[in-house]
């Protein structure tokens, strides 16, 4: 089978489509004819999350006893260089410092309460996006990275951990956990027996989450993925509100109202408004 001809879906692309098919198109299908790249709009909150996650992601590949020997704050300074100033969507130096200080507090929280960070983990290759055929018949591939997989030796299983850098809690109807459960089940050999979120803005400890049903998760995600495939085949991507918070910023870029400030590691043209 040719993976390049398949329809690829991920948590972010599915979340876009569920809220606004037009936003899905502009973020995941459309390419700027001048650069050949997809487009995205950056913001201080996104940049904060990117920098904090970059620091954390590199830890799981290290032996547990080595993870906090190198200063996380020095790693954060290096990661922040990628999002400083306009590149991160910051309008003023004061705004940037406010967000950077939030990131420092989150990492200090991890340093003071490392918990699962110092326990055995399943190594996640940072240069490879885990993926598998959600449906070979439909030629649909589910892909995505999970922040952390703690190895639970007593049960020879894994614990999905997702680090949250925003101020709001994940909504109960979110498809993130069903997607992560499917990815973890189908791209590595250990059974998933636990899942947690770590709200780094406010909590020293993990927030346990009830694992969804594997069969229900597959059915739910495949249903949306089939809708995405059909929309791509029909080239039918309409915003249900004919202009919502999700697609309006991207439409403004198409009208020439944005400023291109860089290119992401995944070859997206980064804009600010």
Automatic annotation (TrEMBL):
InterPro entries for the chain: PDDEXK-like_dom_sf (IPR011604), PDDEXK_AddAB-type (IPR038726)
Gene3D superfamilies the record matches: 3.90.320.10
Superkingdom of origin: Bacteria
Residue span(s) of domain PD-(D/E)XK endonuclease-like: 9-228
Protein name: PD-(D/E)XK endonuclease-like domain-containing protein
Organism name: Candidatus Woesebacteria bacterium GW2011_GWB1_33_22
